[in-house]
Amino acid sequence: MSKPRTVRAFTLVELLVVIAIIGMLVAMLLPAVQAARESARRSDCVNRLKQLALAFHNYENAKKEFPLSYMNPDQAKNNWAPFVLPFLEEQNLITGYDLMTDWWREPNRSIVAIRLPIVTCPSTPQPDRMQDKPETNPPNKTGACGDYFTPAGVHLDINLALTNAQFLPSADLRGAIHWYDDTNKRNRAADITDGLSNTIMLAECGGREDVYRGRERFPVVYTGAVPIRARGGAWATTDNPYAIGQRLPWKAAFGPIPGPVAINNSNEWGHCFYSFHSGGANFTFADASVRFLAEEMDLYALALLTTRAGNEIAESGR
After folding, report:
1. DSSP codes joined into one string, 254-311
2. H or E segment to which residue 211 belongs
3. pLDDT for the residue 6
4. What is the C-alpha separation between 61 and 188, in angstroms, rounded?
5. What is the spatial distance between Cα 209 and Cα 4, in angstroms, rounded to a whole number?
6. Which of 63, 119, 132, 187 is positioned for an S-S bond with 146, CB 3.0–4.6 A?
7. Tens digits of per-residue pLDDT, 72-94?
C-alpha cells in the first residue's frame, strides 16, 4: 500500500504574516508614489508659469512695456490676463473680449467663465472653482478661478511682521507688474532697477476664493454671520493682484489671519504667497526664470524680491 500524500497549506498565522508584510510594503510604496506625482505636478506648474512669463515678454516686445496689474478703472475693470493671453496660445479664446468693458459683464462674462489650465496650478485640490460674488447691482462678479497672480508690491503693514529690518514710508515698494495709479501709468522693463533676475513678476496664490489658513480649508461664504472669502479668485478680476504683507481678512467677523506672514501661511488677499506644493511655492522672475522659494525664507528678503526698485539685491531660492 502506498503512503498517503500530505498536502502542505498555509496556516492561519502564516497567512496573517503575509498579509501584514504586503500591507507594510504598500504603506512604504504609497508615499513614494504620491511624492513622484507631486514632483510631476510641481514641474507642470513651473512649465505653466514659464509660458506665462514668456507671454509677458512677448507683450513687452510688442508694446514696449509690460501690462498693468489692472488698467485705469475709469475706463474698465480688467487685470493683466486679457492683455497677456493673446501672446500665449489663447488667441481663439480671447477673441471677442472687450478691454473697455468690465470683466464680469458681457461679452467678457462668458469668456471669463471658461476655466484656463494655463493659470491653474496642477496641485490645486479643486481646479474647477468658480467665483460668484453677489453684487448690489446685478450681475454677480462671476468667473472661473486661477491660482497665479501678479504681486503689485509690498504693503507697509509688513513692518508689523518684520523683526530684523523695516521699510521706510518713503520707500518705493511697487512691484514689477504694478496697477494703474497717478504714479504708475506704465510698467516698463527699465523701471525694474533691482534687476530682472532679482524681481518677482508672477507667483502662486492658490485656492481662492476658498480660504486656506495653513492647510485647513474654509469654503467661501459670501453672505451670513461670518463671511469667508479669499478675494481675487477669478482669473480676470482686478482683485487678482495685491501688495504683500497684510493680515486682514475679507470681513472682520472671520478674525485676523493667524500665524506668521510667510509663504503658505494663508491665501487671503494682501497676505503673502500660497501654493499647494510641500515646503514652498513657485515664483516667476522678471527675466522669465522660475524658481522655488522655501516656506522658511526670511520675510524681509522675500519682500526685497517683490519690489522692483528698492536698490537691493537679495540672494534666494533653492
Report:
1. G-PPPS-S-TTSB-STTS--B-SSTTEEEEEETTS-EEEEETTS-HHHHHHHH-SSSS
2. strand 211-213
3. 59
4. 11
5. 74
6. 119
7. 999 999 999 999 999 997 778 88
C-alpha 82/C-alpha 73 separation (Å) is 15
In 3D space, the residue among 143, 133, 284 whose CA is nearest the CA of residue 205 turns out to be 284
Percent of the chain with pLDDT over 90: 81
| Dist CA 28 CA 307 (whole Å) | 44
E strands within 87-205?
Answer: 130-133, 141-144, 148-149, 151-154, 200-204
Q: What is the pLDDT of residues 297-318, one digit of tens each?
A: 999 999 999 999 987 655 444 3
How far is it, in rounded angstroms, from Cα 58 to Cα 37? 32
Please report the pLDDT score of residue 16 as a whole number: 77
Supply the pLDDT for residue 317: 41
Question: What is the rounded CA–CA span in Å between residue 173 and residue 192?
Answer: 12
51: number of Cβ within 10 Å: 14
pTM of the model as a whole: 0.87
